[in-house]
């Protein structure tokens, strides 16, 4: 308990803290999505735990609703990126509509179309009735091109009056380049926007009381703007455009007109204009630098890269309660340092071209969560779920019997290939708590044992069970064994505290980092090469992407998959791109210390189901490494007898032959790398004979799937004999995914395989079991009657 007045309860680590966060931040009655400080004050008055400030801060920052609805109270992010001034006059002009203007003039005009030269600031304006494409094209032809010539580039916004086919045809005819500003970013075309604000004030001051004659005043406002010195260029736009000083209506003029000819007038004019242009460019750049310095003060400059998740500002907010930031979006293309193309995460057809000032980056922990969810969703929609090879699962804890431990020790002793992985429990701001060790004992025929060592539920160190577990690890870390790990064996260091093995044992073991081997930088110096090589690089070089109606080839090189050359591959990525399967990683942060063994505690159905899911997740890590090793030919599988794709996930229950000889699902390598004792050689010989016999038994095999679960092996053998089906061996397996049962029958006579297959097709269904049970009940009842009559016939006293 914390010393407060009054005392408040201590909240232990777990889901209870998340519940408190939800109550005092998310609910309407207690939280209402207020900020960190208000939420912190409410909780600390009622509860306490050591890291509560950091936990509350992270929880508030990770709320996507808060990020979408809270207003931005800082300056718009992104430093200023000035546009470089053009080299000369009429190289770049900006055009835009202004309006609608209220009131409409007596001539019906309510828009102003204007065109500004970016270097000289010379402006051309005209009052018009509408803002259609036809009006804009007519303005360019009659008001611009016919009087001033054709500009090299025209900059406009993305309005339909500038993006229509008619405008495109005109631009194509006159040979001009048409540039578009970034959508919802008027600063790109700021030259025209700045003039519009100046023009409005001057026209309003000159117009009549009703402001219905503003179109009469527009030419005079434009003329005075062009004949006045500009603050950016320190030049007069009229002078830069025509090469002479303007003569105003009330300027005194000489009454004598002199006509003279200067043969160098053209040369002097060009030099004069060139000097004006250079001075204007210098002044514009100086002015841009001063403005940029003021603009960038106390302004953040976020950087984004392809693949980042962002929120986009809602640009057409109609009501106070409308969402302020939409998303999340994913950046897919970067056009300029400040311009991006983004794609909505859920609505894949929604694209936008935006700049940094309308983007908002989610908080760091929220962004990481969204990235992981997006990556998980992409793999889940692209690949089928991961299907492991046959395996049988065991749990090691204080409830495991000594007989099971002896069986697992024999399996480890008789194998030389293993995969190993670990799981820990995440604790905020503290080292992760070790919880689980997954060990796969790889057998022949792609069969394996997956052993879950639950270190939080081990027996006491003084017990015989604990010594057997230590013995198992002793055989595992034999230097002659190959232990494949996706990462480093150092992850076992945190499990040393449980005294199951020593650091010397792990150091002496032959552990192989499969993650490094999958992407291992090979020294290319002997070959005279300058670049590193790795497995994926060698097998998946870069390819051109073809997109057509007939084919669609996607490149799977590391660059196109956005995997850096020096970064390791995640297991999920390797399974996805190599095996084309989805390895579910949604349970990475599960509580692996809760006891996954279903026999460890008495639980309800929901708890049992959750633990089965977590256990399957943990087992799939090892099983995925095994499949990668097989696919990359690290493990030799020439002796496999059945394709794994034809088999379900199996939990082997029993094997019975027609001679009632029980078989076990243990496999053993025929050769050991170390000297073997006579007893070990004998075991290996027997096991080898068993495997050869099993291979011969299953040479002619019939598989009957989805049989009724109530059929026992004895019933099945009895039914098959009644149908005169001669067999070697039968086996029943249960799928761990859907609990369906399959029957495997080894047939003696190959010539009758199809005949037996047709016969068995109608057997072992639910209807067949009901018929079989009724028949057995009738036979049992008949036997009882016969026994009763037999007893009465031989007991005459009872008859009396």
Automatic annotation (TrEMBL):
Region feature (Disordered): 639-687, 774-800
Gene Ontology process terms (BP): DNA integration
Pfam families in the cross-refs: Integrase_H2C2 (PF17921), rve (PF00665)
Domain Integrase catalytic: 81-245
Domain of life where this protein originates: Eukaryota
SUPFAM superfamilies: Ribonuclease H-like (SSF53098)
Composition skew (Acidic residues), residue ranges: 651-661
Compositionally biased tracts (Polar residues): 639-649
Ranges of compositional bias, category Basic and acidic residues: 662-681
InterPro entries reported in the protein's UniProt record: Integrase_cat-core (IPR001584), Integrase_H2C2 (IPR041588), Retrovirus_Pol_polyprotein (IPR050951), RNaseH-like_sf (IPR012337), RNaseH_sf (IPR036397)
Record protein name field: Integrase catalytic domain-containing protein
Organism whose genome encodes this protein: Rotaria socialis
């Amino acid at each position: 308990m914390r010393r407060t007045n009054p005392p408040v309860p201590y909240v232990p680590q777990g889901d209870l803290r998340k519940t408190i966060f939800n109550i005092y931040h998310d609910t309407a009655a207690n939280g209402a999505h207020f900020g960190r400080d208000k939420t912190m004050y409410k909780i600390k008055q009622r509860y306490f735990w050591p890291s509560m400030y950091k936990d509350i801060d992270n929880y508030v920052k990770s709320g996507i609703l808060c990020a979408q609805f809270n207003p931005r109270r800082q300056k718009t992010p992104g430093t200023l990126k000035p546009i470089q001034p053009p080299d000369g006059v009429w190289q770049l002009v900006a055009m835009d509509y202004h309006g609608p203007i209220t009131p409409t003039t007596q001539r019906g005009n309510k828009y102003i179309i204007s065109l500004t030269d970016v270097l000289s600031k010379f402006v051309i304006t005209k009052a018009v009735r509408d803002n259609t494409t036809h009006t804009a094209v007519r303005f360019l032809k009659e008001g611009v091109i016919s009087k001033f010539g054709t500009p090299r580039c025209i900059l406009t916004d993305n309005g339909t009056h500038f993006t229509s086919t008619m405008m495109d045809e005109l631009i194509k005819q006159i040979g001009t380049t048409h540039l578009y500003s970034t959508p919802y970013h008027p600063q790109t075309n700021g030259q025209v926007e700045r003039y519009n604000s100046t023009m409005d004030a001057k026209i309003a001051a000159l117009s009549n009381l009703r402001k219905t004659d503003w179109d009469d005043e527009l030419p005079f406002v434009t003329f005075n703007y062009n004949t006045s010195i500009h603050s950016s260029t320190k030049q007069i736009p009229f002078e830069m455009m025509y090469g002479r000083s303007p003569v105003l209506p009330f300027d005194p003029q000489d009454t004598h007109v002199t006509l003279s000819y200067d043969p160098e007038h053209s040369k002097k004019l060009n030099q004069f204009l060139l000097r004006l242009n250079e001075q204007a460019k210098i002044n514009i750049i100086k002015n841009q630098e001063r403005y940029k310095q003021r603009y960038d003060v106390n302004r953040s400059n976020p950087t984004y890269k392809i693949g980042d998740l962002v929120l986009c500002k809602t640009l057409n907010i109609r009501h106070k309660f409308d969402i302020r930031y939409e998303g999340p979006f994913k950046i897919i293309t970067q056009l300029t340092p400040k311009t991006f193309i983004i794609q909505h995460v859920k609505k894949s057809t929604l694209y936008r071209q935006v700049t940094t000032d309308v983007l908002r980056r989610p908080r760091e922990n929220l962004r990481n969560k969204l990235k992981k969810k997006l990556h998980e969703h992409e793999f889940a929609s692209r690949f089928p779920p991961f299907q492991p090879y046959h395996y049988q699962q065991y749990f090691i804890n204080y409830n495991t019997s000594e007989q099971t431990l002896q069986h697992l020790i024999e399996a480890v002793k008789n194998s030389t290939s293993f995969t190993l992985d670990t799981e820990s429990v995440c604790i905020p701001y503290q080292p992760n708590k070790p919880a689980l060790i997954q060990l796969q004992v790889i057998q022949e025929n792609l069969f394996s044992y997956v052993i879950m060592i639950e270190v939080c539920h081990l027996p006491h160190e003084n017990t015989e069970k604990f010594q057997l577990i230590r013995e198992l690890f002793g055989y595992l870390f034999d230097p002659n064994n190959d232990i494949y790990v996706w990462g480093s064996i150092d992850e076992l260091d945190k499990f040393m505290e449980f005294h199951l093995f020593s650091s010397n044992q792990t150091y002496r073991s032959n552990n192989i980092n499969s993650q490094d081997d999958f992407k291992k930088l090979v020294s290319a110096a002997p070959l005279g090469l300058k670049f590193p090589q790795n497995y994926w690089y060698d097998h998946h070089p870069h390819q051109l992407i073809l997109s057509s109606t007939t084919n669609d080839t996607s490149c799977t090189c590391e660059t196109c998959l956005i995997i850096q050359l020096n970064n390791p591959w995640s297991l999920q990525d390797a399974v996805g791109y190599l095996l084309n399967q989805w390895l579910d990683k949604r349970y990475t942060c599960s509580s692996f210390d809760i006891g996954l063994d279903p026999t460890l505690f008495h639980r309800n159905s929901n708890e049992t189901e959750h633990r089965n899911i977590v256990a399957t997740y943990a087992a799939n890590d090892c099983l995925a490494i095994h499949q990668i090793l097989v696919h990359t030919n690290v493990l030799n599988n020439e002796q496999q007898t059945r394709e794994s794709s034809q088999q379900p996930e199996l939990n082997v229950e029993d094997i019975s032959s027609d001679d009632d000889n029980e078989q076990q699902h243990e496999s053993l390598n025929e050769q050991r790398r170390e000297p073997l004792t006579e007893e070990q050689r004998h075991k290996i010989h027997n096991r080898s004979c068993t495997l050869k016999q099993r291979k011969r038994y299953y040479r002619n095999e019939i598989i009957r799937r989805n049989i009724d679960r109530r059929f026992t092996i004895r019933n099945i053998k009895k039914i098959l004999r009644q149908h005169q089906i001669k067999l070697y061996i039968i086996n029943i397996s249960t799928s761990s995914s859907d609990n369906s049962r399959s029957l495997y029958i080894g047939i003696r006579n190959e010539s009758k395989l199809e005949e037996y297959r047709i016969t068995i097709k109608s057997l072992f269904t639910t209807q067949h079991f009901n018929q079989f049970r009724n028949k057995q009940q009738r036979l049992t009842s008949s036997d009882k009657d016969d026994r009763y009559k037999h007893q009465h016939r031989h007991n005459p006293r009872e008859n009396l």
